[in-house]
Amino acid sequence: MIRLAIMKTDPLEFFPLHKSDIANARALLALGYPALGPHLKELLEWLQDGNWPISRPIGEFLLTVPEAIAPLIQEVLAGEDHQWKYWCIVRLIGEMKPKVAEPFRFELLRLAECPTLAEAQNELDKEALGALQKLWPDDWRLDLRSGELASWAQDRIDNKQHGNGSKPPPGGIMAFPEVLADLESRPGMFLRKVTYDSVASCIQGFDLGTGFKFLKGFKEWLCSRATQGHNMSWPVLVLYIAFPESKTPWRNLEDPESEQQAIATLFQCLRDFCSER
Fold first, then answer.
1. Exposed (0-12), middle (13-18) or buried (19+): which is 87, by Cβ within 10 Å?
2. CB neighbours of 124 closer than 8 A, spacing ≥ 6?
């Protein structure tokens, strides 16, 4: 079968028909690179679920062409398919050499330190932290004072506030109490869609821009007030405070009124935290 595949010139003849089509997957991968160059995106799609039998051999092949798949992985990390992100970290980024994985380092750091609620629920923060510690065991946090990281953080904050491609107002990042008041009273100025997740993500962006100084100690402060969920990220802890009787408080966000209650609780927690520290 593999010899026959090598004689063929059209890789599409050997693309897997289903998630367990190991025979076709092996025949396809035998064609190698650059024959499969035009089809790397399609191959990457088979990593949307790492439990599929053909996912592992395809992942092993993609690791042999890290420079070619790097832009495709960046597209996945910028998207909303959190399971796909998870397996890209587990099967690809975490298995790369540190020098090759360097372009993903800042995004791994953001996922580990400032995950959104959805990212935390899909355990992207844990996998990102594991990849960071595996790839750069001695300095995975980077130097948060470095100009490169500061510039990257500022870009992320600007994009979250004003949308990609638009310029922020002059003056840079405002002092947080002023931003907190503006974000609470006029969230539409900062966010295209006002949800609990987007509000929490915006606040995380400001924290990242301060070198993680603003929210330092916030999770511990929340743990002293929440009756459960102490192993969760702070956005989830706020939900346990907003809905103390619920074992799965994030499900309350499906109700618009409950989501507004969660946002109000978040701002109240931040006010109390700022006043007490």
1. buried
2. 82, 85, 86, 89, 111, 115
112 and 189 share one domain: no
pLDDT in tens, 218-249: 999 999 999 888 888 899 999 999 999 999 99
pLDDT of residue 165: 42
Give me the pLDDT at residue 177, please: 56
226/245 Cα distance (integer angstroms): 11
**Assigned token pair, 79:** 């998207």
Q: Six-digit token pair at 100?
A: 């090759």
Amino acid at 231: N
pLDDT of residue 208: 80
pLDDT in tens, 103-137: 898 888 888 877 877 888 889 999 999 999 999 98
Q: Which two tokens stand for residue 256?
A: 């618009």
- Which residues, given as ranges, of the chain have pLDDT below 70? 1-9, 141-177
Looking at the fold, whether 179 and 96 belong to one and the same domain comes out as no
The answer to whether the pTM exceeds 0.70 is: no
Q: Is 142 among the domain residues?
A: no
> Residues 6 or more apart from 95 whose CB is under 8 A from it?
59, 63
Last residue in a domain, options 115, 135, 155:
135
What DSSP string runs through 25-87? HHHHHTT-TTTTGGGHHHHHGGGS-TTSTTHHHHHHHHTT-HHHHHHHHHHHHTSS-HHHHHH
> Per the domain annotation, does 170 fall within a domain?
yes
- Count up the domains in the chain and report the number: 2
For residue 230, what are the contacts with CB-CB under 8 A and spacing of at least 6?
Answer: 223, 237
